[in-house]
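# step 3/5: fold
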Amino acid sequence: MTNDAQPRTQWLGRWGFVLAATGSAVGLGNIWKFPYITGEYGGGAFVLVYLACILAVGVPVMMTEIAFGRRGRGSPIDAIRRVAGEAGASPVWSLLGWMAMLCGFMILSFYVVVAGWSFAYLWKMLSGGLAGSSVDEMAAIFGANNESPLNLGFWSTLVTVATMAIVGKGVQAGIEKSVSWMMPGMVVMLAILIGYGAFSGGFGEALRFLFTFDAGSLSSEGMLAALGHAFFTLSLASGAILTYGSYLPGRASIARTTLSVAVADTVVALMAGLAIFPVIFANGMEPASGPGLIFMSLPLAFQAMPLGTLFGILFFVMLSMAALTSSISMVEATVSWLTDNKGISRRTASWGTGIVLWLISTLAMLSFNLGAEWTLAGKHFFDWLDYLTSRWMMPLGGLGMVLLAGFVLKNQAFREELGLSPAWHALWLFMVRYVSPLGILMIFVDALGIAKLQFGSHWPWLLLVLGVITVVGELASPRLKRAFDA
């Protein structure tokens, strides 16, 4: 541990961190986005590439973030500054921490609006407000939900208040206690929905769709989507995992903990697919329905099911809990920094942060109604928050993090923190130095769209070949052995 790190609250055990980090990862991305992008990009082939990307990019980057957090025992800003200072590196690297903290806060500013949809639909399901006989009618219900600033603002405010109430109670009494029942509850509800799906008539088709590999169904665009989702689903480069890592007890294995989170996150994503696709197939609907799969197609399918209202309520309770566990994690970095550096209590830091968050999220909420005409370069405020965080801040932050760990800092610090055998440590270092940066760079270049304009749809393969050539050349260099021994 670095010398100026202060005593810090820790999780009661390794599983406290696993549940909290899995809760951060298992948000709307798993239950809302994963099923529809799987449908868009070919099913089983997409799933296989996604799993490979989790191992090649997600796990090494997550291990690095957790190691930074535990080594520095502070918010992203303080932890990176301390670890960089220990290695004699420039304090300028702490800007990565600032970007991560700001990124998480900006994501949450529009995420509470999306999370509000989940709570609103739970209420509609309970009150019978989801009565529609076609996808068009369901689309009209979804549009009406967003057109009222009072309605949409109420639900996003409810998410904000619930998030701050939990975070304000602290790491153990608030976050750890909440996720200890929300995460198991979510898995139980998914299992119940899967059990129903097994007898719905569409389960066999769902299994074939998710787990049958057809190489011809996966495009280079699908591969990039799998890579991007693997990176973002684990809440990387947004300050959440690094901050949660700062509460991890020193005796806990970072490698085993990371693998536990990655496996849990992936299992929940696949369970979501097994819960949703049988219902879609049994009702003759299209799996590639895009973002409307959850809020338009699925409610229509629930209406046609025996006990559909009951299972619809279960589904939206689960979706609301998934949204809440993620929102908790995204604000924790800001609250942690305020309590560590400004000498204020956690409760004050939480509610003060909540007020600022509410003001910014209100602007994002108004993008759907009163502020629909307020655009800059064709984008609403909501769209700009999404664009800046997902296409710029997260890829740049993730790239900076692995380059700092792999090339700038002393290798010995990570040897001590990770506690891996020499062979496994060499593998981690290789992934962090070469494989993960290449993967993140591909996400970043794809988001900018520059390479696609120049080289068409085959540009990812060109970048991959250039990356492999670079890595092979580096492996042949005697510098590599000296670097690994540093």
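# step 4/5: annotate
The domain at 14-448 is CATH 1.20.1740.10 (Amino acid/polyamine transporter I).
# step 5/5: archive (pending)
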